[in-house]
User: Fold this.
Amino acid sequence: MTIEYNPNTPKQGDSVGEWQKPFLDNFITIFNAFKKNHVSLDAGATAGNHTFAEFFKQVIPIQTSVGEVSIYSKNVEEQTEQLFLRYQNNVEIQLSNYQIYKPENNPTQIKYFTVLPGKLILYFGQFTANASGNILDLTPYVAKNIITMSCCNVGTTPRPRQIVQPLAPKGKIIQGLTIVNSFFNQPFPNIYYMVLANI
Amino acid sequence: MTFNPAKPDAGPSPALDASIIQTNFSQFASIFSKNVAGILYNHTPLNDLNQGDHESVIFQKQTTDPTITQTLDVLYTKLAPSKIGTDLQLFLKIPKFLPNLLNPTNVPNDPMQITYNQVNTAGPVYQSFLMGGFLLYFGVDTGVTAPNTSIVDTITLSPAPTTILTAIASPNTMTTSGTPIPFIVSTNILSNTQFRINSTSNGSGGAIPYSFSWVAIGTV
Assistant:
């Protein structure tokens, strides 16, 4: 038999025998529900602290009053539930984005990425152009707008900076950058790079 | 006195459990919102206008990662190693959504470390952290050039990362002889904590102050 919380007990006129079972059920329900995301009520000094804070997907806008900051999760198109922050003036900021992982390197590129609040992705790593092309790959392919890019030659020999241009988008996504030597007859560049983009 | 979910039972008389019931109510209220020296922990107290909201949230160390089967995100803490030691960090786990149409890579929804227990806002080596167990360092390297002498400046990162993944320097100084151009620069990583800024400097031009803005990313 399912035990459920009853907020309407005891009723006026209930005998002790009548409220015994509802009270017991309420305490069991409180105990079990509280255990979901908190150290158990009977756990001593750490009782009440959070264990896993689970944020169920919210589907209506969150209101935040003066003196409050809210954290919640919301579905992000083409992704999954991500964490959001809303300040007391109701400004919403997307805190998390995508799923961070280590992209597979290729012979010309060592790749990493991370994300920043505000639907930003930061690609970084090392790139060595070769004769077959000078395309710096932006995996995962989620960049919709390149905000800024910085690079620097690798090694003990200083070299002039490269010119960088985003590839034409494929279905609104920019999948890479073209790296061009800024000075004629320079060796193909080996560079450290950082690229910041909007997702 | 601890919360007892097994009372009141159907024993001799539930009324005999009145004091246990009262203890349960009392315990629940004091555990739900702990007040220590005037600071509220975990939840806003019952009977408060904002009862049930969160106050200073305390996360208890976990030893396993959660399994996610529903539409929710999970925040929790667990020990995480770094170059300078093992500390509790905040982790985020989200539902698995890859592969999808845009990304065919079958990526597991591994937990993402979202904190590090140090930041340095005093400089000259500034440091913060990025999601995924990365450390972000930045600063400005300055000095005075010497004629026909290259610049070879070593930057030491602190707190120490396990590995430096990328190090970028940009010149803020133009040469003074001939047609002025920005100082030409390169970087090379020397170790897990050091990289070098190399520049042809001002060439044969006179001694001038120089500066390079730099940024580096390493792993915790």
In short: The longest helix of chain B spans residues 18-32. Chain B has a mean pLDDT of 94. The radius of gyration of chain B is 28 Å.
